[in-house]
Amino acid sequence: MTDETTGPVRRAGDPAQEASMRDEAAIAAVTARRATMLTRARRHLGWFSTILALLIGAAHTVPVVFPPQVSLPAFLVAMGRWVVAVLLLTYAYLRTRSATPRGGGRRYTVGLLVTMALYLAGLALTPWETWPVAILIGLLIAAPLTIAGWWRRS
Domain of life of the organism in this record (predicted)? Predict the structure, then answer.
C-alpha cells in the first residue's frame, strides 16, 4: 500500500520502521556532534592563530621598545615573558583542540611561513624604527597567520 505524496505507508509498530527511525536518529545525532566539533575546532584554530600571530608581531616590537643596548634586563624579561606566553598558548591549544578542520593544517603552515618571512624581513628594519612604526610592522607581520587561522573554505 502506498500513498502518492509520501511513498510507502508504514503501519504503527512495524519493527522495520522503528529500526529505520532509530538509525536515522543515530545518524542525525552523529552529524550534529560532528558539526559542533568542527565549529569548535575552527574557532580554536582561529583564536590560536590570532594570538600566536600577535605574539610573533610583539616579538618584533620588543627590541624596539626595550633595546638590549640600553636595558638588557628589561629586554630579557620581556622576551622571557614572550617565550612563556608562546609555550602556554601552545600547551593550551594542544590540550583543548578536538580536531583540525579539513585543510586547516596546511593553511596554518602557509600562514606561519609567510608570517615568519615577514618577521625576518622586518628584522632588517629594526634599527631604524620608532615604536609606533614597530607596532604597525608587528601588526603587518601578524596578518597572514591571523587570516589563515580564520579562513574557512565553503
Answer: Bacteria
